[in-house]
Design a protein that fits this description.
Blueprint: H1 3-9, H2 12-27, H3 33-52, H4 59-75, H5 82-100, E1 116-121, H6 123-126, H7 136-144, E2 147-150, H8 158-166, E3 174-178, H9 181-185, H10 190-204, E4 210-214, H11 223-235, E5 239-241, H12 243-250, H13 264-283
């Protein structure tokens, strides 16, 4: 995967962009023409990186940050209020970093009540039907001696996964969801995505069950889908795995067959990464 594409889709571009905006604010306090030119370049690149990173922070934050940044721009070439405006920009974007950092930390899974797992996913999990490739749920079942109920299916969207779940009895104390990529790449609107994901998580969220969901790597300007995932994860007490985790697997040199669907090496890597996230729960069972 192209390093620039990875940097953007993983959400890391947000941090780079914010650092550049902060640098621009500090350079605005300097009087030299070189500092001013670097300031303008740093600010433009920083804003572009923040925008294309599709970082789904709350709209209120982007609104406040936008107003403060515009005020700073209006005073950047004037001595009056320049220092205070620069300090305000630094402050508001540091708040943005503090809001985003928790979503880049891998969650921990608590003890589970039985040695079983349910997996809900699309073709990244189910594979493309090649019998020579052992999918990661089967690898987990074999290597870790757990009963895996695999409800993944090629082409599944959140809506079709919900129908599959409604028609199936799920008894596992832990459910892992790798779903939603086809919604983003297809014709599902953000409003439909929210309705369907809310219904799916409502169906799954029963007392004593833990839900783990892989955050979706997002194309530029697809903030709404990420914001919905985060909002519903909070509502249903779902542990959200940072999008860089799934993207790091897909970005591996020999991990995919076509840049999306996992090769055997990718399936093994996925199994290892997933077990690194959920394994502690079974170790205490």
């Amino acid at each position: 995967m192209n390093p620039i594409v990875y940097h953007i889709a993983s959400g890391q571009a947000f941090f780079t962009g914010v650092v550049l905006v902060l640098l621009a604010a500090l350079l605005s306090l300097r009087e030299s023409s070189l500092a001013r030119r670097v300031m303008v370049l740093s600010f433009l690149v920083g804003v572009i990186l923040v925008a294309v990173s599709s970082t789904p922070l709350p709209w209120w934050f982007y609104g406040v940050a936008g107003v403060v940044t515009l005020v700073w721009l209006g005073t950047a070439f004037q001595k009056r209020w320049r220092k205070r405006a620069a300090e305000a920009v630094v402050g508001v974007w540091l708040v943005g970093l503090l809001l985003e950092v928790p979503y880049h930390l891998t969650p921990s899974v608590g003890p589970v009540s039985s040695h079983s797992l349910t997996v809900i996913g699309d073709s990244v999990t189910a594979g493309l039907g090649d019998e020579d490739i052992e999918t990661w749920p089967r690898i987990l079942s074999r290597e870790q001696d757990i009963a895996v109920q695999d409800l993944s299916h090629v082409g599944d969207t959140v809506a079709s996964a919900r129908k599959r779940v409604a028609a199936t009895e799920i008894e596992s104390p832990l459910v892992l969801l790798e779903i939603g990529g086809n919604d983003i790449l297809g014709s599902t609107t953000s409003a439909q995505f929210k309705t369907n994901l809310d219904a799916l998580l409502t169906e799954l969220a029963t007392p004593g069950r833990q839900l783990v969901m892989l955050e979706l790597p997002l194309p530029p300007f697809y903030h709404a889908y990420g914001r919905i995932q985060r909002e519903l994860a909070r509502k249903h007490n779902v542990k959200l795995v940072p999008k860089r985790v799934l993207l790091s697997i897909i970005a591996g040199g020999d991990a995919t067959l076509d840049s999306i669907h996992l090769s055997q090496a990718g399936q093994q890597n996925m199994a290892d990464v997933v077990w690194g996230i959920i394994g502690a729960g079974y170790a205490t069972e």
